[in-house]
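Hi C.,

You asked whether I'd gotten around to modeling the 323-residue construct. I have! Everything is below, sequence then structure, no commentary in between.
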Amino acid sequence: MTLVTHEGRAVDVAPGETVLEALLRVGVNAPHSCRAGNCHSCMHRAIEGAPPPQSQSGLTDAQKAMGYFLPCICRPTTPLTILRPDDLGASLEAIVRAIDPLSDDIVRLRVEAADFAYRPGQFVELSAREDLKRHYSLASHPEEDPFLEMHIRLHQDGRMSRHLAEELHAGDSVHVAGPSGSCFYEGVHTDQPMLLIGAGTGLAPLYGVLRDALRKGHRGPIRLYHGARSRRGLYLSDELQTISNARDNFAYLPCAFDPAAPHGGDVAATALEAEQSISDAAIFLCGGENLVKRLKRELFMRGASLKNIRSDAFTPAVRSAAA
């Protein structure tokens, strides 16, 4: 017998039995369809233990790195602790360390949460109150920073924006849950070209991915395109230009809307014109949903493999009538 712990429940998997068969045998309502590893509807995530490689057949490198596997073809030989793929980690208390302006309408929030494991570029759920929760991507690096760093755009009528601007201060308590998302460096080959394209606070996960790639000695060329509504919105430009000057394999390419600039400074059009050889590139797309969809479609049509594209598409919070 091999022990599998599913959402806190211990389940014995008999020799030759799949994890899905074991879960169904004990009455767990596990989603499934084909039972052959083709439809991926049964996919789960191992948060402790390593699923057998054959149980990850057909998954992306990012999914494999995060521990995703297919229970219907998984016959484990070592203990596993598993969750459904959409389950966030437990909510942890975090202490606000700093709230600093990065531009006219973007702030950098740094919070400290003990024993919070993540990969640079993933996102978390930030809870300022029980009725005030938003998802934000991480620009910090767990091996370099003692805090979680988020870049947050302040909207004039946004509930979280008002809370950050008017009520939240260093020393206050919030909660974070997660992490989630596959926008991280792990799974990229060291010599593989990397193409990072984002707009606005889409720079946050790209900055985290870039830092991780450089820390791990990435040798292939890395090009980062960052778009903003104005030059003042190109935050962290000095830091990124310094990195670009110091690294032969990294190029920072800022794009601010400007009628006199090529393509009016549109980051998507600029990147699409400049990047002609992308079939082997590891591509990261971050920002507004429309931008990410446009770039993903165009890059795929030009020969990029969908397995090589990782994205973090931001969707605006839905305002309630009382907001």
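If it helps when you're writing up: The CA atoms of residues 38 and 201 lie 36 Å apart.

Thanks,
B.
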